[in-house]
Amino acid sequence: MNDAFARPPARRYDYERDPAAIYRQSFAIVRAEADLDRLPESLRDVAVRLIHACGEPDIVADLAWSDGAAEAAREALGQGAPILTDVKMVEYGIIRSRLAARNEVVCTLDDPRVADHAGDLATTRSAAAVDFWQDRLAGAVVAIGNAPTALFHLLERIAEGFPRPAVILGFPVGFVGAAESKQALSENPFSIPYLTLKGRRGGSAIAAAAVNALAAGLPEEGR
Amino acid sequence: MNDAFARPPARRYDYERDPAAIYRQSFAIVRAEADLDRLPESLRDVAVRLIHACGEPDIVADLAWSDGAAEAAREALGQGAPILTDVKMVEYGIIRSRLAARNEVVCTLDDPRVADHAGDLATTRSAAAVDFWQDRLAGAVVAIGNAPTALFHLLERIAEGFPRPAVILGFPVGFVGAAESKQALSENPFSIPYLTLKGRRGGSAIAAAAVNALAAGLPEEGR
């Protein structure tokens, strides 16, 4: 770095530079625009963070959850439950400093056994990777931010006797199976607590934001 | 893994399991629903992938670009230009197998010097991290998927003499500065090619999708 860049650039644009002010203003705008009244108190801060992650206050209308889902997630996270994710983007969106219990964050998608296992099962790598969660799944926090097939496969495995996670944060995104997988989650017959976003919207940023919100509320980190 | 899980689960749900079919169906739905006609031919495949990443065909109306931006990005990527990102989520969303030139993907946010530098400049860590791009910035592909301050800061540094990237893929998201930073990008007086999404929407998945699309078109990887 040149010495010249030890100084701030000349201000060409009028923008907020203070991280705490950015968070404060962002959350204030979200609270002003989003219809948080339809949510239980335990989910309002979570919804603020989900909206903050995608820029769309109207996702509130598509949120679906089971009673006590936020409490189940907070308790599991506080007790150090592992966090299981379908993609690296979710893994890297989780803010480690907010995991007071230093929870393990696991994405098995790149496990060298996954490609062959997907071939054996005639399914996607994302679905096959779920089978490698088995030893950590009991009481875990599952955060799915990309693949509908991972969520469907998990529900099918649980039906067959896979261990039960503490909560499923289900945010697959897209046009083929995403809405359907989240509908299946919201109708899961295993009484597994869940939080999800109906329809096509979702994604890794929202899934990570859900974990971050449930891990420690609404902090004001630098951004 | 138990032997029991060497077999596929019993099919409780009717969903597409074939990765190639999922991509094919997804892209077909996007092409049917999105108004791609308003885009130049060089950006239509890119737009399909951006929509695929967020589930929202209507983002097409908010896309903005400079003439030749896609060509500039494809040429830079093909020649091995480094890819500079503001957050790890973008870094991990870029599919390495699509980078035929084995481009370096760099996120400096976790550089140990960044926190102090942000304090010295009285700005965010995301903005301060941009200063550590300096040595790689000439001819680089910049992909910003989170922080408006990173994009504003980059434009201010370029005004002061920072090297010029080949293209800026600008997708900050959120309520404070995101729309304004993308407006500034689209009005940049440096003639730097750009692709951006006006308004509040954006994010790391869209930024990574832009790189992936410009790196190799529309493949059908496993998902």
Automatic annotation (TrEMBL), chains A, B:
Q: Which domain of life is it from?
A: Bacteria
Domain Cobalamin biosynthesis precorrin-8X methylmutase CobH/CbiC stretches: 22-215
Concerning Gene3D superfamilies, the annotation shows: Cobalamin biosynthesis CobH/CbiC, precorrin-8X methylmutase
Citing just one GO molecular function, the answer is: precorrin-8X methylmutase activity
Keywords (alphabetical) are: Cobalamin biosynthesis, Isomerase
Asked whether the keyword Isomerase is assigned, the reply is yes
Q: Which pathway is recorded for this entry?
A: Cofactor biosynthesis; adenosylcobalamin biosynthesis
Enzyme Commission code:
5.4.99.61
GO biological process terms held by the UniProt record: cobalamin biosynthetic process
Q: What class of enzyme is it?
A: isomerase
Whether Mitochondrion counts among this entry's keywords is: no
Give a Pfam family name. CbiC
Q: Tell me which family the UniProt entry assigns to this protein.
A: Belongs to the CobH/CbiC family.
Q: Could you tell me what this protein is called? A: Precorrin-8X methylmutase
- Species classification: Bacteria, Pseudomonadati, Pseudomonadota, Alphaproteobacteria, Hyphomicrobiales
